[in-house]
Amino acid sequence: MAEHHAQYQQSHQFPGQTGMQQQQHGKSYQVAKAATAVTAGGSLLVLSGLVLAGTVICLTIATPLLVIFSPVLVPAVITVALIMTGFLASGGFGVAAISVLSWIYKYVTGSHPPGADKIDSARHKLAGKARDMKDRAEQFGQQHMGSERGQHQTS
């Protein structure tokens, strides 16, 4: 900004303007900037004080009303909070259910939704473990059936 102002001053010099006049012009520009900053800052400070005073006055007036109506307001606020929480939870669970049903529909129809490869991998692992357990159970049953037959024949 200062460079732009200096270029503006140099391009708009009058033929009889001296260095002293340029310095005075620069100082007046700085004074104008400072006056503007003080004016804006002071105005905002006064506005801030007025808002603070208004807040304190409103709080002073509202405090007795809040104390008088607190037996009604506190349960009302709790009820509204619970109702809002219930609606938000219900909506969230609804969105989650629709997302899951959409994913399952895509998976069943054959399109490849994200994570389907992990589901297929887990299904193959579980099927393999189930076959292993079935084979072990059959072997265990054959061993026990054979040992029971041997005991019955010796008696």
Topology:
Blueprint lengths: L1 H10 L7 H91 L6 H39 L1
Structural class: mainly alpha
Integer-rounded radius of gyration: 42 Å
What is the percent of helical residues? Answer: over 70%
By DSSP (H or I, 4+ residues per run), the number of helices equals 3
Please count the beta strands (DSSP E, at least 2 residues each): 0
| Cα end-to-end separation | 113 Å
Oligomer state of the chains in this structure = single chain
**Which whole number gives the mean pLDDT?**
83
H/E topology pattern: HHH
What is the overall silhouette?
Answer: elongated
Largest sheet: none
Low-confidence stretches: none
Strand content: under 5%
In short:
The chain is mainly alpha-helical and 155 residues long. Helix content is 90%, strand content 0%.
Task: Provide a descriptive summary of the structure in words.
The protein is an all-alpha fold. Helix content is 90%, strand content 0%. It is elongated and about 115 Å long.
List keywords for this structure.
155 residues, elongated, mainly alpha
